[in-house]
Specification:
The complex is a heterodimer of chains A (about 200) and B (about 750).
Chain A: E1 6-13, H1 20-29, E2 42-51, E3 54-63, H2 70-74, E4 82-88, H3 92-96, H4 98-108, E5 114-120, H5 132-141, E6 145-148, H6 157-181
Parallel strand pairs in A: 1-3, 1-4, 4-5, 5-6
Antiparallel strand pairs in A: 2-3
Chain B: H1 2-19, H2 23-131, H3 135-147, H4 150-155, H5 163-194, H6 197-206, H7 213-241, H8 252-279, H9 284-309, H10 312-324, H11 339-371, H12 376-392, H13 394-423, H14 435-454, H15 457-485, H16 494-505, H17 511-549, H18 555-603, H19 611-619, H20 624-641, H21 644-666, H22 673-693, H23 703-712, H24 737-746, H25 752-757
Helix pairs in contact in B: 1-2, 2-3, 2-5, 3-5, 3-6, 5-6, 6-7, 7-8, 7-9, 8-9, 8-11, 10-13, 11-12, 11-13, 11-14, 13-14, 13-15, 14-15, 14-17, 15-17, 15-18, 17-18, 18-20, 18-21, 20-22, 22-23
Classes of the chains: A alpha/beta (about 200), B mainly alpha (about 750).
Chain lengths: ~200, ~750
């Protein structure tokens, strides 16, 4: 066995060009690659973080935003422990498309996952089109966590991923306790309703 | 030093001497002076001894002095000589340098003269060559002239006499060059126009001599493209004329694409040596870019034809709708079987395109590496250029779109076919599993392998994800819900029996229903076991195929595929969970109720027996034989309908149940010595029987009971110590000391105070 306690799948989704790849690069490699080309299909990175002294491995799937890759990216939703939905705070269109994405999540994701709404590119202060409270409102409506980030300035990027890792480890621990004293079969994939806080409920 | 020191002391001591008044101190002073005198004397003697040695040395010194004077003059001479030699050498070498300079000037002069001669030669040559239409020769003259440094040649002529001729030559040559350029251009175009491939090639080779690398490649590329387009159009027309009963009709468009790609590959193959020879390495990509434009155009045309002929977009739309509204009746859904052929062709199309793009990439990369061997950075930059170009080319984009639709349809096909297999589930007697397991896994395997053959990494990953979903969610849910129904409770239980009886009388329940239900439950159990196994082997098989198909891919790609594959392993575990769940159901509904009466039977048999009873039991067994018969009939019934793995598991389940219930019963029974013996015999018979029905070793499960029997067979209480603690030998006690005491207490003939006294 490898040296980690938990492995979580984190999947980033959202319109093309909102900075998903940059967020992942910033977090996994500490880089901000300017002139990043469009992602083809799905890219995949791994980073191990330490949460309360325990190694947690994050498998981050960075999906392409372009329409023609949609059926590829959708296949990753179900096994995701966390879905990060990203929009660009300077691009109204990327925010307007969020309901479509939510609908996609509804269709393909499992019922048990941790949802996060991320408004990226806060460094472009003068171009900001979507105020923070609007993003927060949207996240609240769909019971998602919310954060605004800047992959360029490395603002809140680590915080985003660490919060997710922390939350998922906590849930995994609780899950272990539950499966110890009740039979495993109650936690059935298709029938159980997630009991964890902050999970998406539609 | 020593002397002066003595003086000083003596002076100071003399001062004090004069002040001395009493005789003792005077004497002491006197003694002191005497000692001092002796030491001074010895010091003096030593100094006198040294005198001779010092004089000798002085003598030697005097002898050396004249030698030193000679040395001084000699070294002065030497230094003069060295200085002289050095100036001499300086003189000589400066002359050599001058000579060298002169020589190099002469050489360059000769070169220039040669250049000028060349120039003249070229000037004359070009004109005659042009007149003779010998363009190769003319071009080689121009090439030679292009390599001359015009300015240097002009500068070297300071005297005005011949500058006119030189100017004239240059003028002529420039004229000739321009003329040649336009001739080659127009001749090339004319050759292209007339389809004279020999002339096309002839003029193609002249371009680089005139420095028109890119122009030549572009023109040639366009020429090749037009040829490509012609053949491609021809093959499309041919394909259209092909009858639908032709055996390649189903993959007609994949074949068309293959022809196109193969044609381009052949063109590259044939032309690359010429380009390398006349244009040098590192320029192939310029041509490939132009060819790619035509390839994109042709591919788009083929795909358009494909889509319209196969009704592709309509099918995609229908599948999309059927996926969206899963709840709609099956009759309104798109029939998945029809997708099979279409999907195979899509996969083939992508395979060919991937293969072709890999070929183009490899060729360009190798050519660039050969062309810019010395500069790693340029190579890197150019290769990135190639990658971006190919990543953004139309063909790639079209294929990505196609794969997107493919995944949508393949997933639909897989899910619908699995659901169909489930709905058409049937089981033949004699088969432990029902048809849906084999069928479903066959479909999943087929789809996964088809996606593998597409060569698209993302497509494979997506299909692996979907395969996991279908197995883990859709298929497992079917098994799970069937298991959740539970194994029908046992008819041995009188309550259940009566209930069944009454329902039979009321005609509500057919006894065959229960049997059917039982059989279905056991089959599902077998299905779960088989699914777990199939899932593992599917993973192993796909792993092998993935590593075979993608062995050239980057580590990153491999890790991606591996991650998606590992999810299949997780799916296997989910089937194992279902199996475990099934067995817990079986335990509570089938095993427990059947074992309970057996243990009760044991309880009702006395183990506090006389000698007579004991021998009577020998002939008329009171319990164990009947128990074995009962177990045997029960096991026989299950053996038929369970897989060997599940059967072993079932036996182990029964064994555990028997041992735990027996333990409870034994601890409630009173024994005498003969009763203990009787129990030992019964236990041996039971263990003996159970060992014959399973391949697993069950003795371990009986360890506690066997140890109880050992204790119950003791002659007296203290005998336990022969087996306990340090005397236990190879035996590991599974009973705690308290339990040992408890078991000892079951013997009616053992005294409790003796048991209490035992030190365990």
């Amino acid at each position: 066995m490898e040296d980690y306690k938990y492995l979580f799948k984190v999947v980033l989704i959202g319109e093309a060009g909102v900075g998903k790849t940059c967020l992942v690069r910033r977090f996994t490699q500490g880089l901000f690659p300017p002139g990043q080309g469009a992602t083809i299909g799905v890219d995949f990175m791994i980073k191990t973080v330490e949460i309360d002294g325990e190694k947690v491995k994050l498998q981050i799937w960075d999906t392409a935003g372009q329409e023609r890759f949609r059926s590829i990216t959708q296949s990753y939703y179900r096994s995701a422990n966390s879905l990060i939905l990203v929009y660009d705070v300077c691009c109204q269109a990327s925010f307007d498309s969020l309901p479509t994405w939510i609908q996609e999540i509804e269709t393909y994701a499992s019922t048990k996952f941790c949802g996060y709404l991320v408004g990226n590119k806060t460094d472009k202060i003068n171009d900001k089109e979507i105020p923070t409270h609007i993003g927060q409102q949207f996240a609240d409506r769909y019971e998602m966590d919310f954060i605004e980030t800047s992959a360029k300035e490395a603002d809140n990027v680590d915080k985003l991923f660490y919060t997710i890792a922390k939350k998922l480890s906590k849930e995994a621990k609780q899950g272990e306790l539950i499966s110890d004293d009740t039979t495993k079969f109650n936690t059935d994939n298709t029938t159980s309703i997630s009991n964890c806080s902050g999970c998406l409920k539609f | 030093m020593a002397a002066s020191k003595t003086d000083a002391t003596s002076v100071s001591s003399l001062d004090t001497v004069e002040n001395l008044t009493d005789i003792d101190s005077i004497k002491a002073a006197f003694d002191k002076f005497c000692v001092e005198e002796v030491t001074i004397n010895s010091d003096l003697e030593k100094l006198i001894e040294n005198q001779g040695r010092l004089e000798n040395k002085m003598g030697n010194m005097h002898k050396v002095i004249p030698n030193i004077q000679i040395l001084e003059t000699d070294s002065k001479n030497l230094s003069n000589m060295v200085a002289f030699t050095s100036t001499l050498a300086e003189n000589v070498s400066s002359k050599v340098r001058q000579l060298d300079l002169a020589k190099s000037r002469v050489t360059s002069c000769i070169a220039r003269v040669e250049d000028i001669l060349d120039l003249k030669f070229c000037t004359d040559g070009v004109q005659t060559a042009l007149q003779n239409e010998d363009y190769e020769k003319a071009a080689s003259h121009v090439h030679r002239f292009r390599n001359l440094d015009e300015n240097v040649l002009r500068m070297s002529l300071t005297s005005g006499e011949s500058s006119d001729t030189l100017d004239n030559s240059f003028k002529l040559l420039h004229e000739a060059e321009n003329k040649l350029k336009s001739i080659v251009n127009s001749k090339f175009d004319a050759a292209v126009h007339s389809g004279d491939s020999a002339s096309v090639e002839r003029f193609f080779k002249i371009f680089p001599l005139l420095g028109l690398y890119d122009e030549g490649l572009t023109k040639f590329g366009k020429y090749l493209s037009s040829q490509l387009s012609e053949t491609a159009d021809k093959s499309i027309r041919l394909a259209e004329a092909m009858g639908s009963e032709d055996k390649r009709a189903n993959v007609m468009y994949a074949d068309l694409a293959t022809q196109l790609f193969e044609h381009i590959a052949k063109v590259v193959e044939v032309r690359q040596p010429i380009i390398e020879t006349y244009y040098g390495a590192g320029r192939l990509f310029t041509l490939l870019k132009i060819l790619q434009v035509e390839c994109d155009r042709q591919s788009r045309q083929i795909l358009q034809q494909f889509k319209s002929k196969r009704n592709f977009d309509h099918v995609v739309q229908q599948v999309q709708q059927s996926t969206m509204f899963q709840k709609q009746p099956a009759s309104e859904k798109y029939e998945p079987k029809g997708l099979d052929i279409l999907l195979s062709e899509v996969v083939l199309l992508n395979t060919r395109a991937e293969l072709y793009l890999r070929f183009i990439k490899r060729r360009s990369t190798n050519d660039i590496e050969a062309g810019f061997q010395n500069d790693v950075n340029i190579v890197k930059e150019k290769i990135t250029d190639v990658d971006t170009f190919l990543d953004n080319c139309d063909l790639k984009r079209l294929m990505q779109e196609l794969i997107g639709s493919y995944i949508l349809m393949e997933e639909y096909f897989m899910r619908e076919m699995v659901l169909k297999a489930v709905s058409m589930d049937s089981f033949d007697t004699g088969q432990p599993t029902s048809s849906m397991v084999d069928d479903s896994f066959f479909i999943v395997k087929k789809c996964a392998r088809r996606s593998l053959s597409s060569g698209s990494v993302d497509g494979v990953c997506a299909m692996l994800n979907h395969a996991c979903t279908v197995l883990e969610q859709d298929f497992r849910e079917v098994l799970h819900s069937r298991i959740r129904v539970g194994f029908p409770s046992d008819q041995y239980l009188s309550v259940a029996y009566n209930m069944v009886q009454s329902s039979l009388q009321q005609g509500k329940l057919q006894s065959s229903d229960t049997e059917k239900q039982k059989a279905q439950f056991l089959t599902t159990l077998n299905n779960a076991e088989a699914s777990c196994e199939y899932c593992q082997s599917l993973k192993t098989m796909l792993e092998a195929e993935v590593s075979k198909s993608f062995h050239q891919s980057s580590e990153h790609t491999k890790a991606k595929l591996e991650s998606c594959l590992s999810d299949l392993g997780a799916a296997a575990n989910r089937f194992k969970d279902v199996l475990e769940f099934g067995f817990t159901q079986l335990q509570s509904n089938a095993v427990k109720p059947r074992v309970k009466p057996l243990a009760d039977g044991y309880l009702s048999t006395s183990h506090n027996i006389t000698e007579e009873d004991f021998s009577n039991f020998e002939a008329n067994d009171p319990w164990v034989q009947n128990c074995i018969v009962q177990l045997d009939t029960m096991l026989a019934a299950f053996k038929e309908s369970l897989t060997s793995g599940n059967y072993d598991k079932f036996v182990s389940l029964i064994t555990s149940e028997i041992t735990s219930q027996m333990e409870k019963a034994v601890l409630k029974t009173a024994f005498n010595r003969l009763g203990g013996l009787q129990f030992d015999k019964e236990l041996r018979a039971l263990v003996g029987y159970l060992s014959t029905v399973t391949t697993w070793t069950i003795r371990d499960k009986f360890a506690r009971l066997t140890q109880m029997a050992t204790i119950l067979n003791l002659e007296k209480v203290t005998e336990i110590l022969d087996y306990w603690g340090p005397n236990s030998g190879p035996l590991t006690w599974r009973l705690t000391p308290t339990e040992v005491r408890h078991v000892l207490g079951l013997r009616v003939d053992f005294r409790s105070d003796e048991i209490k006294k035992l030190k365990l």
